[in-house]
Amino acid sequence: MPRLTIDNQEVEVPAGATVLDAARQLGIDIPTLCHMPGMPPATSCMVCVVKVNDKPRLAPSCALKAEDGMRIQSQCDEVLEARRVALELLLAEHVGDCMGPCQLICPAGMNIPLMIRQIRAGGLEDASVTVKRHIALPAVLGRVCHAPCEKGCRRAQADAAVSICLLKRFVADTDLAREQPYLPVRQATTGKKVAIVGAGPTGASAAWHLLQEGHAVTIIDEQGRPGGMLHKIDAGQLAPDVIRAEMDLIVRLGAEFRLGCRVGADVTLDELCRDYDAVLLAVGEASPSAGDLAQKAGLAPQQGKPAVRLAVDRRTFRTSLAGVFAAGGATRAGKHAVLAVADGQAAACAIGQFLAGADVTGPVKPFNVSLGKLLEGEITAFMSSADPAARTQTQPHQPLSPAQARDESARCLHCDCRKADSCRLRQFSGQYGAKPARYRNRQVAFCQRTDHPRLVYESGKCIACGICIRIVEQAGQSPGLCFTGRGFGVTVSIPFNGTIEEAVGGLADQLVSACPTAAWAYRD
Ligand code: SF4
Ligand code: SF4
Ligand code: SF4
Ligand code: FES
User: Fold this and answer.
1) Ligand 1 centroid vs 456 CA: distance in angstroms?
2) Average pLDDT over residues 303-325
3) For residues 42 and 56, what is the distance between their CA atoms, to the nearest angstrom?
4) Is residue 96 part of a domain?
5) Range(s) of the domain holding residue 52
6) Number of folded domains in the chain?
7) Which whole number is the average pLDDT over 212-220?
């Protein structure tokens, strides 16, 4: 029984065990992509490398037999860097988007492709959940958003963008028309209290997210009604009833509003800091008193004293005052309502971190690899599974009918990845800080096989780990799968131009769960 040390921890393993087995016995996390327990090592991904006995060359732990007296380092800088490079090389030719271009562009990060698929499947309640995970005021935004997502929509390269904004409005209006519109579950109370100064879209959005985390929220505004700058929009485009209906939901979620209360006159910022665990200044443009943020927050210059100025870190939303955060129109250029809503969401994240005593970083961007500019002919491949109909036309400010919404949803190209939440290549790339652009040299075009009732095969997402080939081989499935191509172009193919069904038989579920990327995935 060999005894070895990994990261200075001693372990004894059965003869024949690998260093990876030994690490797992110790609870040490080593990433793997091409390793499949019970199968001979493929050593194609090299993300499992470790340093052995201080030798200069790193070795793949999945194929390295544990030996007596070995000294292994699995977490030193050299190893972490080698894993990052291995991941970047796997991403160099990768053909896929973890998130759809629309979602990447949406300032609030709404999962647009998922919402569209839910509309298409008739799951409007699910679609409300998807929308409201990121957007507190979707009926409002469905009427006033400048829709940057549509400018990035891939469908525009074929004819015209999907009508994303009106689809979101359709979901939100349908929800508001229900007797019980959707309200998210609030986590157990944290006992923490947040004061939000400003009941415009930034403040309302921050409240929506903070309440869900279990914090108590009081929104203070000098106006007699919530909504702030939204009330400046023409009522033909945004009726006050819509603002009221969505603000009511924030009250029903638990927010307390103190309207007609002016910070600096009726209550001071010092008092708010004393009575609350955190304060968010979301004064936007609602305050008639022009000037800098300090003035808007009620910190008016006092005679004989230097003017107070509040500096704001736009990443963490912290101001120069402890426990005071600021977001929204008063802190940045760009006055679009969706930016205000996105700011509220991001500031709530930062405040949540602060209240939990964690590092205040603001939201962390999820890892994403993008197709980038489409290669010639690629848009045709995307269009093959979408409805070729033209974009639904509506009169200005008019909604989509249910039939129009269904038809419009069928135009979406499903650009996002089917395994974005479970892909191990994505998970490790995020964990190791891989930069997909570092060795990027994509020459292979997007290609999708859909000749199976449940499966999709996307060769551009294959990292040639060989796991699927070995699974069908072990099961004696004929004709099975094989590798074709050379160098970076190696991928899995079906011999003799067979169908997926013939190649994989009843192994569909096994392939989807074992494939470390979304090369093998369920259709939806
Ligand atoms: S296979 Fe993984 S890395 Fe590739 S696009 Fe999908 S989620 Fe992203
Ligand atoms: S086609 Fe669909 S998934 Fe692709 S960018 Fe447009 S809305 Fe998003
Ligand atoms: S398709 Fe097969 S060879 Fe390619 S990544 Fe998935 S399991 Fe590995
Ligand atoms: S080389 Fe070890 S998991 Fe891929």
Assistant:
1) 14
2) 86
3) 22
4) no
5) 3-75
6) 4
7) 98
